[in-house]
């Protein structure tokens, strides 16, 4: 069980984090005080062309020295600082949250069409699996994840979420069932520009994990959701599939439906399913994924977790609960529930 | 005879008060246990193989079969079997033949793997009310989708290679006409056609009677090349090159001349009554490059319209071999474990050579995954698969589908007596004697085999539903859904699974 909420302003006008904090806190029954987190896009306009790398450090000695060294080998640190945090009575500070604004050296990564992204992806994987006491939890451009083990209000106040302004926000209230609450296990999960919040369990995790690992990703977060970020990165960024096609690969129609489709569509879906069988996700889930151009929400193929969509002008909301959307935007116009497996997409239009 | 005789294995007795002297036992026993003298049924227990035919045909339940307790001096090393093998070989100077699978008491790994089920945090899925997808495609898959974007539409550039479409991940493995009877093969062919799956023809060619079911067959090419011509290749839905077999890794096949009747000789394209001995290696495959050439020649010969499988026995280095095969243009790798059955194998091979299928599948799957090509090639497991749980566990360990052999014969009556190589199978399966073959009605046989496949398919759906999975893609290689119970760490590492409680 978990509560999720996401919003996009399609005109890219930026919202501060206060209303999403309220909306998320409304879903406290879906959490257990063991994890909450926020992600916002558009928050670092001054460093828009740098990768904003957020790291949890256990201390600023060995782990930070190692991370500095690794980053400096592969690129230039344009700026770095501790992410400001404000002590909360209900939240025990376990890590130091740090951010780097980083530019990779393009010529160090050869043989790929996307050297900067591939470089940063590889750095994230290697820091997370090799550097003890350091965990990269956010690595996209002009965006950032803020998360910790605690209740939504405490986490929001800890990072003072309302001080950030973004055109996309996702937030998550965690009720962990497969691993204990630790900072790295809180959502959103992120890699490059992909961020994921998830309510549910991925029963196909074993299969999905092997698939992404055979493609150069390493699962280090001890929980099933991170695999979704990697699947989107692999299928969406590396293989170039549009987001709705990625969703179709992850939650495809049933064979019985595919068999009845017109020939061209049947062939497309059969080819997609055969190609991406190991990426197909099973189990109860409602997921919202964000990237810099938009958000997509979808559920598993038999909709074992709730998902509600709301719209008001340029704003699109996706959440576990209608009440959360109404808290964020009491004026919300349209409310509907998407069908199982059907992607709900909000794209920036400017 | 200085060595004398060895003791009886089984003791048959008839409850004379029950017996109504219908003589069915006399007629049914092809091994000659019963004979009539002066209106009395006499029993020669020494000839009994425990095939159970008489017992199942006796209308009065009057026959009693007992496995004789060992009456040698007991000895932990020199078991009765060890001593008898020595005696028999001292007498004959020959290799000891055996039928069916490995008869040694090795621990069964499947029995030490337990499956997962959902509780509370994750709802289980009810297959009676929700869709459950077991459809499986066997063949090459693309590594990624290639397409062009055309105003929001996607036009595929990727064209799928030919794949077999299976409605269930259960296929029937290769048992040749010759090793088994035509009625047995026909029963299997009708059964796979009914259940939307496939059967292997074995290396014996294809009899005309199977032609109507050819779209559900996988034709086999073994080192003897028996029955192979272009017509045969074109009839199969897929082609399989048999390099090795789990029951006898490293050696060829042997069909005794007694089983080569006129029809078999014609189908196999060999002289009547001659022993059909396949050589140990294929004489045109001495390396992986040679194999790759053969795979491609077969594809060329059949217009690249049919998937080509390569079957190997599970041996110590199976993962590396399978990875080589996967890169040879083969569409599927079949790995046959050392509990696999056979019509006839040297006993020393059957019982001592090879590795269990559970470990082989996990190792092959892992290797292919590490090389990033797991989804591009299919993996079929066989050799000692006894029930739907074994199948579910095989898939969770990484197989796409399984071949069953012995189980499908048991559905036709086989009682695993292990005497198939003698050609006297009283159930009409491993024999070519017309009076025995007639004991199988292919319609009824097909019904039983199809029932077995359907029942197992239902059970796999239930197991998947309990684990919260509704498509087989998500079970494949999903080691998370397995735990090892009382397995040592070494084996857990090979299987890449955690222990119970972890
Ligand atoms: S089959 Fe049974 S009843 Fe008939 S003769 Fe044999 S023992 Fe007697
Ligand atoms: S096929 Fe026939 S001979 Fe072989 S084990 Fe089964 S019953 Fe015995």
Largest sheet of chain B: 8 strands, parallel, barrel
Gross geometry of chain A = globular
Percent of residues in beta strands of chain B:
15-25%
Nearest-angstrom radius of gyration of chain A? 19 Å
Distance between the termini of chain B: 62 Å
Largest sheet of chain A: 7 strands, antiparallel
Strand percentage of chain A: 25-35%
Instruction: Name the pair of protein chains with the most residues at their interface, and give those residue counts.
Output: A-B, 42 and 42 residues
* Radius of gyration of chain B from CA coordinates: 24 Å
The strands making up the biggest β-sheet of chain B line up spatially as: 11-12-13-14-17-18-20-21
InterPro entries (chain A): GATase_2_dom, Glu_synth_lsu_1, Ntn_hydrolases_N
Pfam families (chain A): GATase_6
GO molecular function (chain A): transferase activity
Active site (chain A): 2 (for gatase activity)
Q: How are the SSEs placed, and which strands pair?
A:
The complex is a heterodimer of chains A (350) and B (502).
Chain A: E1 2-9, E2 15-16, H1 18-26, E3 36-41, E4 51-57, H2 62-74, E5 75-82, E6 96-104, H3 115-130, E7 134-138, E8 143-148, H4 152-159, E9 165-166, E10 168-174, E11 189-191, E12 194-200, H5 205-213, H6 226-238, H7 243-250, H8 255-259, H9 263-275, E13 285-291, E14 294-299, E15 308-312, E16 315-319, H10 322-328, E17 334-336, E18 344-347
Antiparallel strand pairs in A: 1-10, 1-16, 2-9, 3-8, 3-10, 4-6, 4-7, 5-6, 11-12, 12-13, 13-14, 14-18, 15-16, 15-17
Chain B: E1 10-14, H1 24-28, E2 34-37, E3 40-43, H2 53-57, E4 63-67, H3 80-92, E5 97-98, E6 113-115, E7 136-138, E8 147-150, E9 153-156, E10 164-166, E11 170-174, H4 182-195, E12 199-200, E13 217-221, H5 230-235, E14 238-242, E15 254-255, H6 262-268, E16 276-277, H7 288-301, E17 308-313, H8 318-326, E18 332-336, E19 345-346, H9 347-352, H10 357-370, E20 378-382, H11 388-397, E21 401-404, H12 406-410, H13 434-437, H14 442-466, E22 482-484, H15 489-495, E23 498-499
Parallel strand pairs in B: 11-12, 11-21, 12-13, 13-14, 14-17, 17-18, 18-20, 20-21, 22-23
Antiparallel strand pairs in B: 1-4, 2-3, 5-19, 6-22, 7-10, 8-9, 15-16
Helix pairs in contact in B: 4-14, 8-10, 11-14
The structure holds iron/sulfur cluster (SF4) (2 copies).
One iron/sulfur cluster (SF4) binds next to loops of chain B.
